[in-house]
Amino acid sequence: MTVSQVSSDIGRPYEECGVFGVWGAPDAAALAALGLHALQHRGQEAAGIVSHDRERFYQHKGLGLVGEVFGDQRTIATLPGDAAIAHNRYATTGATLLRNVQPLYADFEFGGLAVAHNGNLTNAATLRQALVRRGCLFQSTTDTEVFVHLIAISLYANVLDRLIDAVKQVKGAYSLIALTEDGMVGLRDPLGVRPLILGRMPGNGAWVFASETCALDIIGAEFVRDVEPGEIVVINAGGLRSIKPFAESGSRFCVFEYIYFARPDSVLEGHPVYQARKQIGIELARASAVDADVVVPVPDSGVPSAMGYAAESGIPFELGIIRNHYVGRTFIEPTDQIRNLGVRMKHSANRAVLEGQRVILVDDSIVRGTTSRKIVDMVRAAGAREVHMRISSPPTIHPCFYGIDTPEESKLLAATHSMEQMRELIGVDSLAFISFDGLYRALGYENRGAAQGHYCDACFTGDYPISLVDRDGALVA
Ligand code: SF4
């Protein structure tokens, strides 16, 4: 069997999700539902919680937004206990099946185990094929189940050693939270590409894991620290223990979390996301100034950068596009048709701001270009005299294999078109992207060189820091 056959059998591998876990708090499931609510932007197709009351596990999962799955207090009441882990799922087309919704739960000889994971394994198909050959029966198409089977077949005696055995076999970008009968475990991949933070609740001292700090804020928990790249943090009745099973290999945190994915009120790896986005806008204004009357963000992720651009340029910031917040994010809806529909449903032009004006539009990225084109058309239809587009990421020219859904290279506008062709296709008077130096200056470095080796920016550079085992054909037919 070839790699591509395996891949298509298990569905597209890309997913970006939110994870949350709490240990030692009464009403853990209610806290987990709140945490998921704060992480809703990371996945909107399904949500799940597994709780434990020191006797047995309970679970509830469903398709839809957190409010739809856990909005009823009676549902939370079916999840007793002082420990819970939770997951928001985003999946591409075809894979939104209830059996794929996390956390995944399994009974082992050592007891029950629930696992929730965010990211993507780059050797999932390879491992899956080997596991299937050994007789493992997969119930879902998620990478998470690979962890579960690796733990199941491990020859180590206790669950922690089995988990370490499993993470040593996987390759990829992931954060993972696991719940056992007597502990909660949080871990990050050896390069820390995907985020995971540790927090603690004042008063009862309950420990919390979450993808982003905004999930601590909603429950009043305090930020303790980022889980380190390659670190396994174990929490149980004996307190907290840190295990580092990998040789130190630095950090390659996903720079796109700052540009688009994370919530602006989160702090990731010590950098407030809002400040980073605003500073990117300042850098954009310095590098690609143009005469205009208004700076208009494409809401919501373009807002802080547009504020930075306006502050630096002295051009007024105006809400020339109004977003309807009751529609899911365009970027993570599954088909072109829905995506296009989503833009019309989601954004409206504010004619009072745009008519007769020279407009600078600030957006976070251009992926396929279809969304940008529609927004520009809408702004022109509302009477804008000129439209200049400024983008707070470098051109996206490669797909992400580490957990952010991006189309293949041939569908990425910047991979297949020159700057002038893109400008023409999108229909703007001028187009500019943040430079690499500007991006990294916004994150506090002198220039790109100074940040070299600290971040993953592979979708802009093609410099993939983790080997792409499945893609590069390590799988033997
Ligand atoms: S390839 Fe891009 S989106 Fe993917 S982890 Fe790297 S920086 Fe993030």
TrEMBL record:
<keyword id="KW-0004">4Fe-4S</keyword>
<dbReference type="GO" id="GO:0051539">
    <property type="term" value="F:4 iron, 4 sulfur cluster binding"/>
</dbReference>
<feature type="binding site">
    <location>
        <position position="364"/>
    </location>
    <ligand>
        <name>Mg(2+)</name>
    </ligand>
</feature>
<dbReference type="InterPro" id="IPR029057">
    <property type="entry name" value="PRTase-like"/>
</dbReference>
<dbReference type="InterPro" id="IPR005854">
    <property type="entry name" value="PurF"/>
</dbReference>
<feature type="binding site">
    <location>
        <position position="456"/>
    </location>
    <ligand>
        <name>[4Fe-4S] cluster</name>
    </ligand>
</feature>
<feature type="binding site">
    <location>
        <position position="459"/>
    </location>
    <ligand>
        <name>[4Fe-4S] cluster</name>
    </ligand>
</feature>
<feature type="binding site">
    <location>
        <position position="301"/>
    </location>
    <ligand>
        <name>Mg(2+)</name>
    </ligand>
</feature>
<keyword id="KW-0328">Glycosyltransferase</keyword>
<dbReference type="InterPro" id="IPR035584">
    <property type="entry name" value="PurF_N"/>
</dbReference>
<feature type="domain" description="Glutamine amidotransferase type-2">
    <location>
        <begin position="17"/>
        <end position="238"/>
    </location>
</feature>
<dbReference type="InterPro" id="IPR029055">
    <property type="entry name" value="Ntn_hydrolases_N"/>
</dbReference>
<dbReference type="InterPro" id="IPR000836">
    <property type="entry name" value="PRTase_dom"/>
</dbReference>
<dbReference type="Pfam" id="PF13537">
    <property type="entry name" value="GATase_7"/>
</dbReference>
<keyword id="KW-0408">Iron</keyword>
<comment type="similarity">
    <text>In the C-terminal section; belongs to the purine/pyrimidine phosphoribosyltransferase family.</text>
</comment>
<comment type="function">
    <text>Catalyzes the formation of phosphoribosylamine from phosphoribosylpyrophosphate (PRPP) and glutamine.</text>
</comment>
<protein>
    <recommendedName>
        <fullName>Amidophosphoribosyltransferase</fullName>
        <ecNumber>2.4.2.14</ecNumber>
    </recommendedName>
</protein>
<keyword id="KW-0315">Glutamine amidotransferase</keyword>
<feature type="binding site">
    <location>
        <position position="363"/>
    </location>
    <ligand>
        <name>Mg(2+)</name>
    </ligand>
</feature>
<feature type="binding site">
    <location>
        <position position="254"/>
    </location>
    <ligand>
        <name>[4Fe-4S] cluster</name>
    </ligand>
</feature>
<keyword id="KW-0411">Iron-sulfur</keyword>
<dbReference type="GO" id="GO:0004044">
    <property type="term" value="F:amidophosphoribosyltransferase activity"/>
</dbReference>
<dbReference type="InterPro" id="IPR017932">
    <property type="entry name" value="GATase_2_dom"/>
</dbReference>
<feature type="binding site">
    <location>
        <position position="400"/>
    </location>
    <ligand>
        <name>[4Fe-4S] cluster</name>
    </ligand>
</feature>
<keyword id="KW-0460">Magnesium</keyword>
<dbReference type="GO" id="GO:0006189">
    <property type="term" value="P:'de novo' IMP biosynthetic process"/>
</dbReference>
<feature type="active site" description="Nucleophile">
    <location>
        <position position="17"/>
    </location>
</feature>
<dbReference type="GO" id="GO:0000287">
    <property type="term" value="F:magnesium ion binding"/>
</dbReference>
<dbReference type="Pfam" id="PF00156">
    <property type="entry name" value="Pribosyltran"/>
</dbReference>
<keyword id="KW-0658">Purine biosynthesis</keyword>
<keyword id="KW-0808">Transferase</keyword>
<keyword id="KW-0479">Metal-binding</keyword>
<comment type="pathway">
    <text>Purine metabolism; IMP biosynthesis via de novo pathway; N(1)-(5-phospho-D-ribosyl)glycinamide from 5-phospho-alpha-D-ribose 1-diphosphate: step 1/2.</text>
</comment>
<dbReference type="GO" id="GO:0009113">
    <property type="term" value="P:purine nucleobase biosynthetic process"/>
</dbReference>
